[in-house]
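## retry 2 of 3
previous attempt timed out at serialization; input unchanged, resubmitting
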Amino acid sequence: MALFVLRRLVQSIFVMLAVSLLAFALFRFVGDPVAVMVGQETSIEDQERLREQLGLNDPVITQYARFVGNLLQGEFGYSYRTRQPIGEMLLDRMPATVELGFVSLLISLAVGIPAGIYTALHKDGAASNAILIVTLIGVSIPTFVIGIFLIYIFGVQLGWLPTFGRGDVVEIGWWKTNFLSVSGLKALILPAVTLGIYQLTLTMRLVRSEMQDVMQTDFVKFAISRGIDYRTVHYRHALRNSMVPVITIIGLQFGGIIAFSIVTESVFQWPGMGLLFLESIRYVDIPVMSVYLVVIALIFVVINLVVDLLYFVIDPRVRLKSEAN
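## retry succeeded, writing output
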């Protein structure tokens, strides 16, 4: 166990170093931040002085070393545009993104797992085929199109739900939550459904595929031949073994929802980290863009590490393979 964890930690460190290098290098050529920060009337001398203050004239290696050193100390620097600490900006936006991702994941699991089980057990039924067709359409349509469609139906035509913003939020310390106000809950529905539809289709198809594979294994056939009722075979034996890989995917899905909520947050003007990233691109706010990518990568790495540990605990085959190595 200790060797398994140590190996994963070392891999995670190398991943974060690679991501930090990419995040630092990726935005070096997206534009001149000084030109965005100052007006046209600013003299060349003042622009050079500002560039010197920001450290943009330093060698690239020096800038990267400073970037990594600050990250290791938990200092994310300051935004070129607002001059606010980037850490505070991310913490202010994080609750919106996390709550949106959490509700989206719940929607995908609450609908995707039962639908996957049903289509696996009734693979030739008309209802199963209809579900597969609908989910295929859902996974093929871009997220922003789904969002615009939901806005038009439930926001414009029916007027049931708000079409942008978070609504009223309740502050619990530094965390601002939608869950404790009616307005906040209503504002959360449309973006969460939009973001959850794509994950729902992936969850359903994964559960269906795993369930069908397990139903073909010898131990399930043996259980049926012994006269065990089908309900017990399906839900106690087949489903339990099908959920092992599904559990590991759920964590990665949550990371994916957090990372790829940018489009949904843009459509609904949801004030999360994704919208902050888009705003930083617009204003060539290089520090915010770089730190955002590092934070998202860290979320993925932590979730992946937790998933690996869960897989190690749940699946004895992984333990045996690790001990053999």
